[in-house]
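retry 2 of 3: previous attempt timed out while embedding protoporphyrin IX containing FE. Reduced batch size to 1 and resubmitted. Inputs unchanged:
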Amino acid sequence: MADDSAINVAGAGGLPATPKIPDHVPASLVRDIDFHKRPNTLDDPFSLTERMYEDFPPIFWSTEGVPGRYDGCWVVTHYEDIREVYQNDALYSTEDAANFQVLVGETFKMLPLAVDPPEHGKYRVLLNPWFSPRAITEMEPKIRATINDLIDKFVDKGEADLAYDFGRLYPVRVFMDLMGFPAEKLEEFLQWEYAILHSDFVEERIKWGIGSAIAYLRSFIEEVRKTPQNNLASHIVHGKIEDRPLTEDEIIGTMTFLWVGGLDTVAATTSLMFRRLALRPDLQKVLRDDPGLIPNAIEEFLRTEPLVNSTRLVKADHLIRGVQIKKGDNVQCYNSMGNFDPAEFENPREIRFDRPSNRHFSLAGGPHRCLGSHLARRELRIALSEILRRLPTFGLKPGSDRTAVPGLVAVPRLPVVWPV
Ligand code: HEM
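retry 2 succeeded.
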């Protein structure tokens, strides 16, 4: 999924050089966090946050903003604080989250993300059946076939780009099939999505991406309206909330947010996971020797690859750890730190498939916990088990670029080789 912070991964290209800092923010709490969102070639691309518990206060003001939304925001980094922000919907609202559509003059809300409980619940009631564990189990044969179809293309070659030719493609195919989108839109969808989420704050690119997506979705909705089908798009267009049809705004808002959220989150996680495994044949061996560990492994890869840092709008003045927070401020839950809080996770930077409890924030928390979490987990499990089943031990192709980004863009290319 893609929250506002998703576009923060790339840096501050289109923002004012001197960000405005509100009067109630003490200068001693202002920090620039851009340094650890930059592309790097480290084994663990997220390790740049490692020293932040020592070097940064537990709550600080980040000077990084989001075009059209805010110039800066509070950042909480400790597990307990993040959990409180996610769970306390009376104090922290999602109404302003992921509002890319306002950049192109749209006034609909991104649903179900941008509404608070109790209203939020009725949109989840509409969508939950399509994302329940049972529904995902029904999708499993198709997911497995999609994955194996891609693996067939490279299994005999001894090399493949596991990001571009695999991770980038299979979740999008699964998502497009679930929604009922025509398969031939795939490359175009990916271009629009990339412009929205990875365009280094260049407002014109974001506008182009979201504007193109909304225009297409509106025409697609009209087609679905004429011809009902057995897919999620049709369920939304012809669906009911509390016994009434959805309004135009609710339909386009739900379709748009699903489109933004469903496209490349699993892709990024997949590529990061295989990058890690390519660098760590010992971890591959552990999973090949005991495939029963795969569900735990997926949880551990999710924890150590927190793609999104979600932001909430503050509804009333209050204090966090003695710091004055004002109504209208934004607070970002820094999953890139909370998932590595030593108070919650023993040896947090170590990848361990035997953690007794692994309640990370990569799929957020509280009422807006990721709707697609069961689908994402199942896709990742199948991808991991099929790659391990069909490929022998693989490693990064010598001399290849090993750049990764600690965020949604993740790993654009991942050439790996194996003996044939
Ligand atoms: C590894 C993959 C994924 C990750 C890391 C991820 C992450 C997240 C996060 C962090 C949120 C909360 C955003 C916030 O609170 O501001 C979220 C919400 C959401 N995600 Fe995902 N997501 C993933 C996969 C998916 C998929 C595959 C879909 C749909 C096909 C999806 C649809 C949604 C929706 C609709 C919400 C909003 C839920 C609500 O507001 O109730 N996500 N996701």
